[in-house]
Design goal:
This protein is of the alpha+beta class. 33% of the residues lie in helices and 26% in strands. The model is unreliable at 1-53 and 205-209 (pLDDT under 50).
Length: 352
């Protein structure tokens, strides 16, 4: 087997040589760069570093064949993981068939943890692994039966249901007990990054200077979620209503609230709803609007990247975009609006 360190060094040399880059062209650079990242990942497998996951995770989760340029030494690891994922899908489906009330396992979560623990290594059976994400309960129900003479009667039936485990600490404890191996905090953080990458398109790490609390949803008792975490009160730079426009210097109405966050901060949906708009506007920049119940609509402006599409159904706390400073903006921030039947209102009335 070719030494991955040598391959990685060769890749770095290739991309750092301007003449070579121009010779192969940007198209080839785009094709080969994920493979280079896989090589770097394999050099760092022992550390489980989340920053080296991106290309390998995407290749493992993608459908279809791998690029022809994928080196054989790395192709085997990725194809093995894709095979494990297919087996996990079957095990997850079997567990979901035993659940009630429409509940089920999150297949991306299950696979992200599996990838973090077993990419490039020996893996347990898919069923043994998936079972650690659910518990079983014995329940009773009354069913109607008919005997041979046509008499209808009710009987109490005992049956088993599968209940997905929401608490990841419990899941990791189950995995450790069932598989007989310790799971490090680094591996857990790695799994979270892979999950965010596949589900939302970003690795879970803020792509700027960081903003405390933005990495987890902050939802109030009424179900309204802050778009940027629990500390939103400390970062308000412009309130709703009359203000001095920072660009024109003139007094003007402000249709929302500005929240100063570093570019790349995950922006979350305030309530369950359906994405109505996700596009660029000369004023709002890259922005998203979400329609909710009772005529309520929320708007999220000046993003650097959009992670949802019109028509997509989202839940409160789902990451819908990454903050930025696009459009009519003087610096990185989120412009957040709340509208009731088309009328703009003060977001402070709703934020938790």
């Amino acid at each position: 087997m070719v030494d991955p360190v040598i391959v990685a060094k060769a890749a770095v040399t290739l991309l750092s040589n301007e003449k070579t880059r121009k010779g192969i062209g940007w198209t080839l650079a785009i094709i080969f760069s994920p493979i280079i990242m896989v090589a770097v990942l394999l050099c760092a497998l022992g550390s489980g570093t989340a920053s080296h996951n991106t290309a390998a995770a995407q290749l493992c989760f993608q459908d279809g064949l791998l690029p022809d340029s994928t080196p054989d030494e790395y192709r085997v690891f990725i194809e093995e993981m894709q095979t494990h994922f297919a087996e996990l899908d079957e095990s997850i489906a079997a567990i979901d068939a035993m659940t009630e009330d429409g509940s089920g396992l999150d297949p991306i979560r299950v696979k992200a943890v599996f990838f973090s623990l077993y990419f490039g290594g020996e893996a347990p059976s898919a069923a043994q692994f998936a079972n650690c994400f659910a518990t079983s309960e014995i329940r009773t129900r009354t069913v109607t039966e008919t005997d041979e003479e046509g008499n209808v009667f009710e009987v109490e039936q005992i049956y088993t249901v599968a209940v997905p485990i929401e608490d990841m600490a419990t899941v990791y404890a189950n995995l450790s007990s069932s598989l007989g191996a310790g799971i490090t905090e680094e591996q857990q953080a790695n799994a979270d990054s892979v999950y965010s990458l596949i589900k939302y398109g970003y690795t879970g790490a803020v792509e700027g200077n960081g903003f405390a609390g933005a990495d987890v949803p902050y939802i109030g008792v009424d179900g309204f979620c802050s778009p940027v975490g629990a500390n939103w009160r400390n970062i308000v730079t412009s309130e709703f209503g009359n203000r001095i426009d920072p660009i024109t210097g003139q007094r003007d109405g402000h249709t929302g609230m500005d929240l100063a966050v570093p570019a790349g901060t995950p922006v979350r949906a305030a309530l369950p709803g359906t994405v109505r708009v996700a596009k660029y506007d000369s004023s709002y920049g890259y922005y998203v609007t979400i329609g909710h119940e009772n005529g309520l609509l929320t708007l999220y402006g000046h993003n650097s990247r959009l992670l949802v599409s019109p028509g997509q159904v989202v839940q409160a706390g789902d990451v819908i975009s990454l903050s930025g400073s696009t459009g009519r903006s003087t610096g990185p921030h989120l412009h957040f609006e709340v509208r009731i039947n088309g009328e703009r209102t003060n977001p402070r009335y709703y934020l938790p």
